[in-house]
Amino acid sequence: MRRLSRRATEDPGAMPDATDDGPVATVASAARTNTASRLHAFNRFEIKYLVPQAQADELRTELGRHMDEDAYSGATGYPVTSLYYDTPHLRLYWEKIEGLRFRRKLRVRHYGTADDLTADSAVFVEIKQRVNRVTQKRRVRLPYRDALLLCSPQGYAPVGEISSREHAFLDEVTALVGELGLRPTVTTAYHREAWVGREADLGLRITLDHRLRGRDRDFHLASESLNRLTLPPGLSILEVKADERVPTWVTDAAARMSLDLVRISKYCQSVQAFGLAPRSLAHAPDEVDEVLRPAPDQAPGRHRVTSARPTTPTGVDDAPSRQGAPTR
């Protein structure tokens, strides 16, 4: 099989319908993982809330009334670590900050602890894109070494027959890396709890992410380098992901608990935390800072936290290992 060209012959944005979930052939190199490599695609709406630690238990109880725990989450959740790619001038970051109607991000994602990760471990190469108000995610499962090759100037040469859909996705990644000059920029890590909808809410998925942290160097996902908090430690991010609509009980519960609806990107939080792109350059307001700003009747500084200047670094990802990888 030829090595994929660094310049795709087709428009990298011209991809198959993200809702097409037909069978996809196995990439031969995936035999090292004893699992088939498949292209997965998701189309959904997303909204996010900030959740103070003091309200987390109340939220879990509310979610438990309407949803089931994700099969990989259980009672304790699982760790997630991602490596994000961007241009030397942070083009993908600025597209998010400026609110472009069509924008993309490229990342390599690992579910599990650093101790679980080897060159042969299965990870996901993902393109997450926003088209107007809809979030689309496409990803392929590869051994870690092949995922890094795919996202590097060296390129990745799959062996054996692969489907046209998967080949198109690999070409799109190749084009993004080659034409935009993408390179590793920051990592993000957090501990995730997840719930899935039931009955009328089968398309609903809700996640609660804690201990958001990252680094701007030592990009190996199993590195023992220290991470820095990218969100105040007393806050978690609740993500509500729905195929068509967010159920009324979700928004009612958020309103009852006075949760703040925010537009927040974990990638952008890491970029800002390390001073790679100060928000003031784009005159972009930071919603986290605004939420944490003290009310007029509160003592000055009581709740004021600036997420762009995180607190002291945390250690390496020490969350408990979970077997398997979530499907979404």
Automatic annotation (TrEMBL):
SUPFAM superfamilies on file: CYTH-like phosphatases (SSF55154)
Annotated region (Disordered), positions in chain: 1-23, 287-328
CDD domains for the chain: PolyPPase_VTC_like
Provenance organism: Cellulomonas dongxiuzhuiae
Protein name per UniProt: Polyphosphate polymerase domain-containing protein
VTC domain residues: 43-273
Top-level taxon of origin: Bacteria
